[in-house]
Amino acid sequence: MRHLTFAANWKMHIAPAEARAFASAFLAQSNPVEGRTLWFFPSAVSLEAAANAFGGRADVRIGAQDVHWEAKGAFTGATSIPLAHGAGATGALVGHSERRHVFGESDEETGRKVAALLAAGLTAMLCVGEQLSEREAGQTQAVCLRQLRAGLGGMGQDQWGQVVIAYEPVWAIGTGRNATPGDAASVHAAIRAELGRLGAPGRRPVLYGGSVNQGNVASLLAESEIDGVLVGGASLDPAGWARIVATG
Ligand code: PGA
Q1: How many domains is the chain partitioned into structurally?
Q2: Catalytic pick among 105, 130, 168, 194
Q3: Which residues contact 200 (CB under 8 A, 6 or more apart)?
Q4: Annotation says 13 is catalytic
Q5: Of 134, 40, 119, which is closest to residue 87 (Cα–Cα)?
Q6: What is the pLDDT of residues 56-82, one digit of tens each?
Q7: Which residue has a Cα nearest atom 7 of ligand 1?
Q8: What is the domain extent for residue 169?
Q9: Residue 96: active-site member
Q10: Mean pLDDT of the region 105-130
Q11: Is the pTM of this model over 0.85?
Q12: How remote is the CA of residue 127 from the centroid of ligand 1, in Å?
């Protein structure tokens, strides 16, 4: 049976009280569907509220938007994996394009974060994707595969079950432009081939992200290479998100 993952990246939105209100509205409109996993990535301050509010649903997982690779210490403003886990996270995004291109996160840092998450027994959702200039220069696959190798370079071969990949072309994020399903699928196929070369023993989920909404999600999920979606703007409304996770 095909497994689909629907991931909501709430970015710098949704305070704890809003997370509770979102969960009660969403849960009233959405029932678990076999073969579907729902991830919510709230801000660090709303992790615990979200984890508690969604607590009863076995298909729901809560993740941090970013973590530091050190377990503790003098890192003002950062969230460690034990802190996120203590608040209810069982995974985290790593290398989201806003971390890379707004906050200057390097490939090497993504590798450390993935390795630390996997060592702690959590899931790492590693985001890769090219900028517009890289796409125009014909470097899409080279950039994505470089980010993939750097992000996964420190992992152990027994940790593949904790790895999810999200392909998010930077030019498609929050812009209303999205890759055509066929374009996305061909990058997904290249990512999947690289995962095989890196030693992935079976099929790992590869999600698509970038301006996914109610109008385009069905055509993206129609591609067998696309195992789900990572969604920002269209995940902020509980009714709309309930419709998206019911697609297909
Ligand atoms: P968007 O964001 O759906 O608002 O384009 C996706 C993401 O950045 O994960």
Answers
A1: 1
A2: 168
A3: 160, 163
A4: no
A5: 40
A6: 899 999 999 999 999 999 999 999 999
A7: 232
A8: 4-245
A9: yes
A10: 98
A11: yes
A12: 11
